Amino acid sequence: GLPAESLKRMEAYWKQEKIKRVEKVKEEIKRLESQAHRKQLDQEVIDEMISSLASGVIKSFRINLVKKDDFSILFEMSSTNQLVLCFPKSKIVQDSYWMKKRFVNKLIGMGFEYKNSRLQIEINDFSDSIHIKELLARILFDVYLVRNIDKDITLEILA
Predict the structure, then answer these.
(1) How far apart are CA 146 and CA 31, in angstroms?
(2) Mapped to the 3 state alphabet, what secondary structure does 92-146 carry?
(3) Which of 97, 112, 131, 135 has its CA 20 to 30 A from that of 49?
(4) What is the distance between the alpha carbons of residues 57 and 44, in angstroms, rounded to a whole number?
(5) Apex CA 153: angle with CA 46 and CA 126, to 5°?
(6) pTM higher than 0.85 for the full model?
């Protein structure tokens, strides 16, 4: 077997690793609790925006998640009257290997694909916006886990 001194060093190392992991989990719990009180995007506003988009009142709108990094979800109508949700090129996604690997792969798993050098999904039937809200919730949850989104998510009409 291993000498007693080596076993003691290994035991001390794993004990420290366990303490580090517990501390990380405690920090994550604190972070999640502090963010649970964030102002939620009003569902009625999303319904109204999607309705305005579908009726042609507006051409596009964006939900800004991390303003300083230009990380947002763009909503627009395609030429074939499909609702398009996309992530325009963003510093976060371009610069982070981990973001590309984890976040982009999750989006692709949700049905997003690369088109016109951006990650997007086209939705045919959006008369009932519940599907869009579910998709948005999944995206926000993953973004929320991956990156600290801004405390106040802003909605911006582009055209």
Answers:
(1) 13
(2) HHHHCHHHHHHHHHHHHHCCCEEECCEEEEEECCCCCCHHHHHHHHHHHHHHHHH
(3) 112
(4) 17
(5) 20
(6) no
Averaged pLDDT of the chain: 77
Two structure tokens written together for 146: 């991956």
Query: What is the arithmetic mean of pLDDT over 113-120?
Result: 82
Q: Which tokens sit at 79?
A: 């030429």
Give just the sign of the alpha carbon dihedral 136, 139, 144, 145: positive
Cα 92 from Cα 108, distance rounded (Å) = 17
Question: Which residue's structure tokens are 């599907």?
Answer: 131
The dihedral through the CA atoms of 7, 9, 15, 20 has a sign that is: negative
Burial of 150 (0-12, 13-18, 19+ CB in 10 A): middle
Instruction: List % helix, strand, coil for the chain (3-state, nearest 5).
Output: 50, 20, 30
β-sheet bridge partners, residue 111: none
Q: What is the pLDDT of residue 44?
A: 76
